[in-house]
Amino acid sequence: MSISQDVDNTDDIRSQFVALLPALRSFARGFYPNPDEADDLVQETLGRALGGLHTFTPGTSLKSWMFTIMRNTFYTAIKRRRREPAGMKADVAESEIPREPSQEWVLRAKELEAALHQLEPENREAIMLVCVSGVSYAEASEICGCAVGTIKSRISRGKAQLLLTLGNETRSSIVEKI
Prior knowledge:
67% of the residues lie in helices and 0% in strands.
């Protein structure tokens, strides 16, 4: 998906941005388990993309460009949080009362999500790009600024760590438990 040569065609650009929203939301959930934080990251990404639209090279992948903006936005926020003091914890009255789901698949999905967020950020990012968002290895390497082999290695290490965290020795053991 790429922006046409005519950057003044705002309807076309808007429709391309809207078409990318599900992929952006999915990628953002790899960075933040909290849906509100993930949506904030998507919004920040869209704002930066619109502001920097003049830097987009027509004929290149809009999806890769947007994912790169999101990745950079996330890492900038992490650096900012490390520099700035943490604020007060949210009011207890605002917190949700946890309710355990009864379906096995919902429990497994929550376990997987928690395990995903225990991975090293680079491994999690590679898995989210390739395995969840369906980005090619080449596109993922471009987004992350590393070699294709590095992406493959990160995915392999990430998957192995996920299996260990979830208490599985092999990939087939996951299927056997369900």
